[in-house]
Design goal:
This protein is of the alpha+beta class and about 180 residues long. It is about 25% helix and about 30% strand. The termini are far apart. It comes from Halomarina rubra.
Length: about 180
């Protein structure tokens, strides 16, 4: 990997971010549209891009989640989506985005981060099966639904179902596209 800079997004990054997610997900635009909707609703807690030689090559977004029947004082965010241009995958760009994103989440007062993804990949970043912490999810996933506490004892005595923002629910099919 050459010199990659990780920085917060700017308004002028939106087209490049859309294209990164579209290309990373084999032409599907659901993830791109989720990012647009979350940014449009001002629900991006942390949103970072990876820039290499002046070109945006990756993006990660962390947005608020809720844990049913739990106090508002618990700050849990979801890591989704994370994408890297296909020709830049397997070069460590996604790892850099996730590591910087987790650090930024911690700095902004987030207690824990959840992710729905490959356990082998995300365990490298300290994610563990969320059900071990008493957390479920609205998708019914178990092994693939993981959590990373960012503060000591953040999830002590927490139990419930984690829900993502409504912006995750509308897909291309539901939008009639």
């Amino acid at each position: 990997m050459t010199n990659v800079e990780i920085r917060p997004i700017t308004a002028s990054d939106s087209d490049a971010i859309y294209e990164i997610h579209r290309r990373a997900f084999d032409g599907r635009t659901d993830e791109s549209r989720i990012v647009q909707r979350l940014h449009g609703a001002d629900k991006a807690v942390v949103s970072l891009v990876a820039v290499e030689n002046g070109q945006i090559v990756g993006h990660v977004l962390f947005s608020p989640t809720s844990v049913d029947d739990w106090e508002e004082t618990l700050a849990v965010v979801g890591l989704a989506p994370v994408s890297v241009l296909p020709e830049k995958q397997n070069e460590g760009v996604g790892s850099l985005l996730i590591q910087h994103g987790l650090a930024k989440c911690r700095d902004t007062g987030v207690d824990a981060v959840v992710v729905l993804g490959d356990p082998e990949y995300y365990s490298r970043f300290g994610f563990e099966r969320a059900s071990e912490y008493g957390l479920g999810n609205e998708y019914g996933a178990d092994e693939e639904f993981m959590v990373r506490p960012l503060t000591d004892r953040a999830l002590d005595d927490v139990e419930g179902v984690v829900s993502y923002q409504p912006e995750f629910q509308e897909t291309e099919e539901q939008a009639g596209r």
